[in-house]
Amino acid sequence: AVVLAAAIFFALQAGAQHSPPAASNAGHRHAGHRQAGHGKTAASSPRPADSASAAAGTWSFSDTDANDGLLSVSCPTSTFCAASDSNGNVSLFNGTSWTKPVLADGTGAYLNSVSCATGSGSRFCAAVDNQGYVVSYNGQSWGQPVQIDPNGEGLLRVSCATTSFCVAVDADGSAFTYNGRGWHEQSGIDGSGGQLWAVTCPSTSYCAAFDLDGYTLHTQGAGWTAPVQVDTSGSLQGGTIACASAAFCMISDSLGYMTAFTGGSWGAPVMIDQNRLTSVSCPSSTFCMAVDIAGNELTYNGKGWSQPTALTPQGQLWSVSCHSASFCTVVGQDGIYIYR
């Protein structure tokens, strides 16, 4: 049975792929109702995008796995990436081309999130699904699915800082940590009662997560902090979080707002896009890339965000991963885009 968190995720991800106009219009309808009193910076305020220019690199496109609902991508280097889809398949990138999709998760679930890391000549990836299973790649092949969250509401996101350190979260407020040998659960890390939605680990000593009620929390190796509410609008559903370090993070949300963590605190959410943002990636504090449901990408240069720029072919975009300011990969309903 498809559990609650899986249903929410699928409705936002794979299900919305069949109705681009409706999904795009929804962002426009609701954005106009956000007021400063809801914890949002009003859309009429000066756009931070005015000080940034669009990405100046070259985009290429591949229709790899375009028919199976690509959901997530991870690129720890410019010569190694993995992309997962809604049918349990994963494709790998070697710096030149993508492999054909390989079935990594035969449970019938869809792979919500994939994250990869490299080190000392080794490669490791973990991909999590909506039924609580995780599949791992050891540099040569994918192992069998292992159910690490049998009583939860489905694993939503995973982030791997190294080949022996990953963290995954579920909607029950639990975190699952991989130590190179196995996965260990920390239940109830989100005492706010919200549903954990996303996590990012820029290093083994720092991870940050947020829930659908707008609370953030982090860990620096000695347990998770108490949740702090940074967004009261309720629009974080469908968003993602990216941290370049313990001092710099960005959260994208479902109404086109971005919330930044700088100087030791979270700023007010600021609208950067009229469409629903679906993913953000920040390899440094001076470069981030975000994508939206209308087929646009936006870049951050340390001062502000660029205007949305359409990728060709223009379809719904679901995930972005940037190794650096000169290499990013985006997956969407039509296939895979590479920026370099």
Provide keyphrases for this structure.
single chain, 340 residues, mainly beta, five-stranded antiparallel beta sheet, four-stranded antiparallel beta sheet, 2 helices, 6% helix, globular, disordered N terminus
Can you tell me about this structure?
The chain is mainly beta. It is built from 2 helices and 29 strands. The chain has helices at 4-12, 20-31; strands at residues 59-62, 70-77, 80-85, 89-93, 102-103, 111-119, 122-129, 133-137, 146-147, 155-162, 165-170, 175-178, 183-186, 196-203, 206-211, 215-219, 228-229, 240-245, 248-252, 257-262, 265-266, 270-271, 277-284, 287-292, 296-300, 309-310, 317-324, 327-332, 335-339. Strands 18, 19, 20, 21 and 22 form a 5-stranded antiparallel sheet that branches. A 4-stranded antiparallel sheet has the order 1-29-28-27, with no helix packed on it. Strand 2 (70-77) and strand 3 form a beta hairpin. The termini are far apart. Residues 1-47 have low confidence and may be disordered.
